[in-house]
Sequence to fold (168 residues):
Amino acid sequence: MQVPTLPIKEAFRRVPNFAKFMPSCLTSAIYESNQKNGLAKEEVAAIKAYTAQCDVYKLLNQALRSEQLKNIQPWFSYLKLFHMAISKLKPKKGYYCRGENIDQSSKYQVGSIITWVREAMEPKSLGIFDNYRVKKQLIHSSTSIATNLILVDEILRAGLSSLRPGGQ
Fold:
């Protein structure tokens, strides 16, 4: 399938509900982006739009998890731009944090001590569920690019089994 390489604004115009959810987020991502580390301004904006506190991440992952081509296809031009951008990034060792804007409080008993990414914490005393609706997850990467990890993780969660080892 041929996917055109479009400017980021054009790529997003193909996405359902674009006008409702993303114009200000996209405008900010473009405005705050500059050529950097071998990436064009549009490529930097594609990464910023995905990692910003806006609906791009949520809506894209919702489409991927639906496993329905009709939901995923409008994102192809943006995904191509995003892929072109992350493919240019050099691997970097480190710890990376990804947040999800969902309420996780029903999964844990108030007052209990849980181990979450190798750190013991007491959710109630830290005010995690009272003050934030965000789940943070540390990803330790010794050889991969953090953005590639996030994208691959979402694609695998969406059930695209051809990307799994052995095609299972």
About this structure: Residues 1-90+145-168 form one domain. The beta strands are 94-100, 114-116, 119-121, 135-141. The CA atoms of residues 5 and 76 lie 10 Å apart.
